[in-house]
Amino acid sequence: MGDRFERVPVHFAGEGAGVDELSWGMWEIWHAMVGQRGSLPIGGRAALPAGTTVADVAEELRYLMGRFPSMRTRLRIDPAGHPTQELFDSGSTALEVYDAGRADPERVANTVEEHYRSVPFDHTGEWPVRMAVVRRDGLAVHLVSIMSHLVTDAAGGAIMLREVQQRSTAPVTGLQQLEQAAWQRSPAGLRQNERALGHFERILRTIPARRFPASTDLRTPRLWTAEFHSPALRLALPVIAERTGTDTRTVLLALYAVALRRISGTDPVVFRPVVNNRFRSGLRDVVCMVAQAGLTVLEVGDGTVDEAVELTRRTTMTGYKHAYFHPERLNELIARVSAERGEAVDVQCFFNDRSTHRPPEQDGPPDAERLERAQAEGVFRWVRRTEAAIDSLLVHFDDAPDGLLMEMLTDIHHFSAEDAEALARGLEAVAVEAALDPAARTELR
């Protein structure tokens, strides 16, 4: 990244300090980090508005660290590997400044971002935020900001960006991580956990144990990540949503279930939608990890896609309501029920919709020619292979230029690489089918 580099000290202070157990949302992402052997970093890079100075960015970093407790939180890990959270009311970090020299500043920013993402966070000895400025001819031109996923989920990230833009000085509202941990062991929190685990247990005792046929893809490394950029999904989802009188998030969830059923050949379809939990009391405006994966069962059956959308709309609310629980207790429950059934019960199929579902810019609904052309422009590629064994399929949806980006993480010993690509393209195909034909069927024809 070159020799022209400096660190600008940034001192910060904020409300609150203390040590407690992890909140349930922190436990959820901590399990994912341990399983995937990484910090699951979030953030990225962006061009800075003309006239921005290094001092401006340092002040923004100071604002972030002081305002949001999750950015001032580190972990303590005992000899047995048990983590707890520690919030600090003050401290110091640094803004890194890179001079691009004659290099392209965008390429320098990309290199810095890759470095920040590739080096695991030291959650006990490092603040969970890394920020840098790339400078060209003395002017700050690019920003790089990467955070550990322990800081926040996607919904919290959107709240954080909004407050940074507004430079809000009003006190933060809602239950922060230490307060969440205290509530979660209160009588009300224990009742919520008991109700949620009861919902999980009823499902665990009745569903087929396996989600997918056994994979014969035993190559190593076994955790593969793919990206599928789909212009067609962005066009098709609003058409189906308008016709069915629902929203595009529900439509996408229904299409995922239909595509899974077509790939696996099993019904009901069982998967875990990630729920942002901001509808809960005290959590609406918090910037921290509160998203958790619920558990949903859909009897897709042989019918129309529109019927599957309506089924999804009716069914998912129960799963959302119970997506707030102690992940350690859920793991114990899964192990106990599996032992009692004499077979491992698999609920490691995840759906995480992080997109904003901005409507496409178009005049009227797309016709068949436009949808088919957009479908032909879809690009699927494998981007990473790492050594981890998670026995899971995780599918994330994000905004992308002129489409949706579907990121898939699959343990190919659990769900093969071939099936993963078939799932991505199959989901897009059923979306196009249903957008063009209200009578489109859930089963393969």
Task: Provide the descriptors you would attach to this structure in a database record.
Chloramphenicol Acetyltransferase, 8-stranded mixed sheet, single chain, alpha+beta, about 25% strand
Summary, kept brief:
This protein is 39% helix and 24% strand.
The CATH homologous superfamily of the largest domain: Nonribosomal peptide synthetase, condensation domain
Percent of residues in beta strands?
Answer: 15-25%
Find the CATH topology of the largest domain: Chloramphenicol Acetyltransferase
| Helical content class | 25-40%
Question: Mind telling me the CATH class of the largest domain?
Answer: Alpha Beta
**Helices and strands: which structural class?**
alpha+beta
Shape: globular
| Series of H and E elements | EEHEHEEEHEEHHHEHHEEEHHEHEEEH
The largest pleated sheet is described as:
8 strands, mixed
Number of helices: 12
CATH architecture of the largest domain: 2-Layer Sandwich
**Rg over CA atoms:** 23 Å
What's the rounded overall pLDDT mean?
95
